[in-house]
Amino acid sequence: MVAMIGGGSARAVNLEVGIRHSFYEGPLLLDSLRYQNGVKETLSITRLSYLLSGFAIQRDDGEWVELGEQTAWMDLGSRRNSFRLKEIPAGPYRAIRFHFGPEALVNHGDTAQFPGDHPLNPNLNGLHWSWQGGYIFLAVEGHFRAKDGEPKGYSYHLAGDANRVRIHLEAPLDLRVDGTIGLDFDLGILLSAPRTISFERDGSSTHSRKGDPLAEALVANLPRAFRVTQVLSTALKLPQSVAVKPLYLPKTFTPYAFTVSGSFPLPNLPRDNPLIVERVALGQALFQEVAFSRNGSISCASCHLAGQAFTDGRRVSVGVEGRTGNRNAMPLFNLAWKTRFFWDGRAASLREQALMPIADHAEMDETVERVAGKLAATSVYPPLFERAFGSPEVTAEKVGLALEQFMLTLTSSHSKFDAALRGKAVLSEEEKRGFELFMTENDPRTGKAGADCFHCHGGPLLSDQQFHNNGLKPTSDLGRYGVTKVGADRGKFATPSLRNVARTGPYMHDGRFATLEEVVEHYSSGVQRSPTLDPNLAKHPEGGLGLSAEDQRALVAFLKTLDDQ
Fold first, then answer.
1. For the domain with range 277-408, which CATH number is right: 2.60.120.10, 1.20.1560.10, 1.10.760.10, 3.40.50.12780?
2. pLDDT value at position 43?
3. 161 Cβ partners below 8 Å, 6+ apart?
4. Residues 18, 81: contact at Cβ < 8 Å?
5. Average of per-residue pLDDT values in the chain
6. What is the second-level CATH architecture of the domain 416-562?
7. Among 59, 113, 250, 533, which residue's CB has the most CB atoms within a 10 Å radius?
8. pLDDT, tens digit, for every residue of 486-543?
9. What whole-number distance in Å separates Cα of residue 38 and Cα of residue 231?
């Protein structure tokens, strides 16, 4: 028997669910090449991310209570290891069940319906195959030591309605009050029991196509990989959401109509800085303001030109007195979907990012306090600040908030490729071939030969918004490691969007490649192996994909369809 919640008058309680991730019962540490699977292959795990849904608990009389449309996204890298099941009828229960992945209707539904902080928002979880359709239920990626001693990569993605796995766990739950249950997800068992998985024997990649024995092994092993470790009759206190109050909202204002492509996931816009026309206008003016620089020679727009997708066309940007830095100017569009900024992710918000170049010696070489003073001394800016913030006072914080608003409005979604998806344009045969290569995994085991671009550049945003080591010849710039000091981040840089990519060269964080042809050639034959090379590149042969000259041309042709028209 099955009962749905919401139909009775029983008092409702909550159940906190915490999941411990382990490897043969020992703690699971990311990026640690120390574990051994059932055939004694040494491996590490660099990514563990999955979606849970279809929650239900079983009463002592055997009746199952379905908990409605509640979904959880777990991700070891971002330390998402607990969630709350709400509105449970109070009483005693004896078991809990849930599924890996959403039900079919949701799996193939419109992803743009989910708010920016919803577990099923693709921009949040990074677990959706966009044009291929459907969610990835479970992603396990990492490195393993091959027979020759060299580390290689593996990428296991479980998906597809037929592979939706149900987990059933016996657990005495006294939920007359809020409760807590602790679970253990053992990755050692996932890779070994009842079916032993070998990277060398069974392959280093699966995308769960029909009949794939690797996907079948993961489906068989998942139910045994979970166990109950703790049941409490009192709930562990998860952080409560706090109401956010808008900062310096004027008494009268005009809401800004933020428009977004229907194919895009909804962004998680800053709730303390709601978009208003007056503040966006101020931010646009400040973006052009040369008073930001010490000698009045450059503005934000000097390195971010609208006609070049807000880049500057230089290998590295030039600051005051001709000073040069060591990184390429990143494009400024679709920033509403990002959560870390700069090539190394050192800024956690756009308002923070906007102020950093001011104090950088190689860029504007000024202080934010002096900039605020310069703006306040003009006759132009105090009235603009009055309209945008309800006060003529100019502060560094307000400058950051205004610039954040303007940059949030810079969106890109009108390329030839977008038009082709809507049936309003037609790709050439070469462009179609390039798209096929872009979206096809390179996996000799299954006879697939592609460019494998979609792992990092999939989805309508054409970026996973993460940081990767993409096999560049190393320099003294260690990328993300300079911020985190975590060894696994050596050589990792932000994944730029491929939208407008024909306009944003030269390419990579240091502008080392002048053309798209050079970029494609890098992935074909120039990938440098290192301990932190992304698993989706490390699984390929030495050097790279080995694409033919014809396929390289087709891939470049497709990339050129991504420019806004």
1. 1.10.760.10
2. 96
3. 104, 107, 134
4. yes
5. 94
6. Orthogonal Bundle (1.10)
7. 533
8. 999 999 999 999 999 999 999 999 999 999 999 999 999 999 999 999 999 999 999 9
9. 30
Return d(Cα 136, Cα 50) in angstroms, integer: 7
pLDDT digits (tens, 9 = 90+) for 73-128: 999 999 999 999 999 999 999 999 999 999 999 999 999 999 999 999 999 999 99
Q: Which two tokens stand for residue 419?
A: 């038009």
Domain spans of the chain?
Answer: 2-232, 277-408, 416-562
Q: How many CA atoms lie within 13 A of 86 on its CB side?
A: 6
In this structure, are residues 520 and 555 in contact, taking their beta carbons and an 8 Å threshold?
A: yes
Measured in residues, the chain has a length of 565
Q: Which two tokens stand for residue 554?
A: 């087709």
Instruction: Tokens for 54, please give them.
Output: 């279809």
Q: What mean pLDDT comes out for the span 453-469?
A: 95
Q: Find how far residue 413's CA is from the centre of its chain.
A: 18
Residue type at 211 in one-letter notation: G
In 3D, which of 533, 460, 559, 371 has the Cα closest to residue 130? 460
Q: How confident is the model at residue 556 (pLDDT cuts 50, 70, 90)?
A: very high
